[in-house]
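Fill in residues.
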């Protein structure tokens, strides 16, 4: 980790760390969020670009979020349905699993 002395617009100052030796992942004028901890060694700032403290980490693109949701729903559907019955074609099994996955997503969205 590389330490930087940082002065924020609101008057807060302290040491912030970054994995980059060149510069932190934010610059002068960027909107940031931070937490501050003071101890016998000084003030330590944890700084992220605005919106960076969301639970779950980074915000995904809508396409990636959709794929994650679809994978979750299809996995749940297959777990609910169990193994494919030997008397049912894989095509029919996948259609049933897809229908159930859509129903799971709709139910989740109504909560």
């Amino acid at each position: 980790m590389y330490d930087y002395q940082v002065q924020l617009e609101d008057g807060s100052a302290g040491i912030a760390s970054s994995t980059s030796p060149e510069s932190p992942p934010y610059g002068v004028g960027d909107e940031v969020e931070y937490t501050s901890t003071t101890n016998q060694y000084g003030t330590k700032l944890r700084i992220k670009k605005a919106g960076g403290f969301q639970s779950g980490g980074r915000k995904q693109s809508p396409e990636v979020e959709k794929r994650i949701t679809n994978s979750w729903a299809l996995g749940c559907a297959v777990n609910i349905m169990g193994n494919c019955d030997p008397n049912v074609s894989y095509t029919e099994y996948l259609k049933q699993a897809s229908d159930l996955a859509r129903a799971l997503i709709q139910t989740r969205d109504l909560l």
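The first helix runs from residue 62 to 81.
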